Amino acid sequence: MKFKITTLFLVLVLGIASAQEKKWTLEECVTYAVENNLTIEQFALDLENTKIEESDAFGNLLPNLNASSSASSNTGFSINPTNNAPTNTTAFNVNGSLSSNITLFDGLRNVNRLNRAKLNAIAAQYRLDDLKDDIRLNVANAYLQVLSNKENLKVSRAQYAVTEQDLKRIKELVDSGVVPKGDLLEIEATAANQEQQIVNGESRVLISRINLAQLLQITDYQNFDVVEEAFAIPPSNILDNSAKDIFNKAVSYRNDIKFSESNVSLAEKDLKIAKGAIYPTLSGFANYGSRYSDATTLPGGIDPSFTNQLWIFDGVSYGAQLNVPIFNGFSTKNGIKRAKIQLEKSKLQFEQDKLDLESNIQQAYVDVKTFYKAYEAAEKTLEARRLAYNYSKERFDVGLMNAFNFSQAQSRVDNAEADVVRTKYDYIFRLKILEFYFGIPISLN
Fold first, then answer.
1. Which of 7, 214, 260, 440 is deepest in the core (most CB within 10 A)?
2. What does UniProt give as the signal peptide span (predicted)?
3. Does residue 147 carry a pLDDT above 80?
């Protein structure tokens, strides 16, 4: 029994440790966000609604079928329903009917409603897919922000480790009287500043992790973390394409553009539906009915039983009905005008969405070039700052530079390293945006 309890305890501990050690990759974050986002689930339900609307529209093309029945008892004066003769007796009556109606012509409104319902389902799918695209980009941005903050924190800790070594050496020199105590105080101030940077860096990592977890709608912030990898600049040949080429491809498949285009098609169907109201409506109908009354007397000695009466008094009626709209208070005319205005608005919005897409791609294209140049400049600056720092350290070690100037040289290296990390991840994200416009899935590989 003791062995079983110990084993169970170890399994639980290992399970908890395994859950806490879970590290998320970018692909896992994107997939999880798309599969668990509440807004996506709401849009998916909207899509299901459009499918129901399509079924409704198809049903309007079919004939309906309805049955009705009634039973009543009359005491005193009444009309016998079987012979329309007045009677003054108590009678029990039963009536039943079966009816069907079908629209034969309504200006093709039902046909256009069915086509509109199909287009609306397609539009809802585009809207859902466009939301997924936005979430993928937002998650990628948040993920890269976590990596950037983590890398900056590593740099801060490495810088502090170097300063600790310098601080230890300076203390020994101060104790031996080789350098003044002011140099020690200057190095201690530098170390304190770097400690503060580490604390701030840890806070930025935590906040960025929380932001990413919230995008994924994960509430266990403390145990949520991403894979700790230092990503290099990913290879890409996206700039081999012009911004115009990227736009031409994006406009042919982007879900936001397809959604905007489908809204134009929906507005065109709405106009056709509105115009259909000016035409006459032709419908057909058929009815079958029968009745029974216990006050019935039949000639020829026929038994007025319930079954016999149903067969004797049954009947069929059928026909067609034509309704011609003549004047309806300008509602039809104004409905057509509103539909035309909505169509023009949809067309303008479609053109605006294409212009916005082209503008975003042009901006992304320029950003990729600009941020890469900024990254290259930051790399060159860091290399120069390190050379200057090494030179300053050599002079400081032999007493030719005071601690203040040496700490300034170290601070410039710290800032240059932070700039390299920042510009690197800024460039990576802009690159991924441009690739995403070109149809390349988000990945850091």
1. 260
2. 1-19
3. yes
Q: Would you state the structure tokens that stand for residue 198, as one six-digit string?
A: 């580490």
- The secondary structure of 368-433 as a DSSP string is HHHHHHHHHHHHHHHHHHHHHHHHHHHHHHTTSS-HHHHHHHHHHHHHHHHHHHHHHHHHHHHHHH
Nearest-angstrom CA–CA distance, 324 and 326: 6
315 CB-side CA count, 13 A: 7
Instruction: Note whether residue 18 is domain-resident.
Output: no
Based on the fold, state whether residues 78 and 227 are members of the same structural domain.
Answer: no
Same domain, 310 and 339: no
Closest to 424 in 3D by CA, of 190, 151, 126? 151
Q: Are residues 265 and 335 in the same domain?
A: yes
Residues 6+ apart with CB under 8 A from 26: 139, 140, 143, 226, 442, 443, 444
Whether 168 is covered by a domain: the verdict is no
pLDDT higher at 168 or 10? 168
Domains: count for the chain:
2
CA-derived radius of gyration, the chain: 40
The 10 Å Cβ neighbour count of residue 37 is: 19
* pLDDT tens per residue, range 401-435: 777 787 788 888 888 988 998 899 899 899 999 99
Return the bridge partners of 91, or none: 74
Predicted confidence at residue 212, as pLDDT, reads 94
402 and 341 share one domain: yes
Spatial separation of the C-alpha atoms in residues 110 and 210, rounded to whole Å: 51
Q: Which domain holds residue 205?
A: 30-61+119-145+201-279+327-437
Do residues 393 and 429 both lie within one domain?
Answer: yes
What is the C-alpha to C-alpha distance for residues 266 and 256, in angstroms, rounded to an integer? 15
Please tell me the pTM assigned to this model.
0.81
